[in-house]
Amino acid sequence: MPKAGVYMMLTSGLxxxxxAAIGSLAxxxxxxxxxxxxxxxxxxxxxxxxxxxxxRSFTRRQWGPVLxxxxxxGVVNLSLYTAIDRIGLGLAVTLExxxxxxxxxxxxxxxxxxxxxxxxxxxxxxxxxxxxTSDYLGMxxxxxxxxxxxxxxxxxxxxxxxxxxxQGTAAAVGLSALVxxxxxxxxxxxxxxxxxxxxxAVAAGILSSALPFLADLFTLRRVPAEAFGLFxxxxxxxxxxxxxxxxxxxxxxxxxxxIVAVVAANVISVLAKPRHK
Length: 277
Prior knowledge:
Blueprint lengths: L2 H22 L2 H25 L8 H28 L1 H8 L1 H10 L3 H17 L8 H27 L4 H24 L4 H25 L5 H7 L3 H12 L6 H20 L5
């Protein structure tokens, strides 16, 4: 696996979870819907400037995955942020990881990768164990985000092969932002945010959307989708760490064991990859 791809995946994971934790600080005022709306608009502004999509030159073959990715962007962010609000950052992101894990499992041809995927699933099962306080709606929303993340990996890779640069991703984010713009305006009018709250929502847009989208786009051109899915399993530990440091969301021993199982599966898979001279 190219070192540049590894560095970009680490940057994407850290930035995404830090942005989610910071954005969560704005939930009491704007709610998950308001934060997602601001996040989408900020991400669109950044990516449209950097990507400069030439929309008129897009063919029907190129528009297909772009439109699908726009829908995915809108659904994944709202479902994940609502899940974070209900069940916490660490658990929500760990369940969301089932998306890329499914990609890894479906595309794997080696027994060691299948074993690592099973180990990661076992960790997720521990995290989802039934308890009197279990929020099944929150878990369900996190699983919806998982399905969207799987689609995001495949669509982003397809767009990277069909459209040069970041034009496709920028166009998809822009379309998603058009839907959220009036929603965000209504939320902001009825719940006027302070400078700190607005800053937290804007930071979420930059750290959790703009930067990771660009990093993932170029990573998926260098790294197979299966390897990307397995390597990004480090996101749960990033999320748990950010949840504890920023949001004071502490996990119990069983939850940490589940996360360790997920990360261990990732590490074993990466170390077991054959090295090409």
